[in-house]
Amino acid sequence: MSSSTEAQSSRGDVFKWAIVVLLVAVGVIGNNFYSAESLLYRLIAILVLAVVAGYVALHTVKGQSFFTLAKEAKTEIRRVVWPTRQETVQTTLIVLAVVVFMSLVLWGVDSFLGWVVSSVIS
Known about the structure:
This protein is mainly alpha-helical. It folds into 2 domains: 1-80; 82-122. Helix content is 88%, strand content 0%.
């Protein structure tokens, strides 16, 4: 990309992000201003503003890179080998046993050190 194209893209992205911030601000201020209205109507208005803001944000360079990242993450999740139920239960029980054991060890060390300090002080 040439530097003039990058500058135009940067200025265009700044303008688009300003629109996104403006839409979010309109949603927040409008929700506060129309607090007496039905929650359903306010929710619909906020959802519409959020969709429009998301659409505008996806047309920026950062938005496109985020969309690409999300697509690649979806592809990677399909490749994951998920553990079986038995492996999950066994791992959970091992973690719980280690947590209980370490909490008892730390409780014992804390009690011993508290006894030593109280013996030295008194």
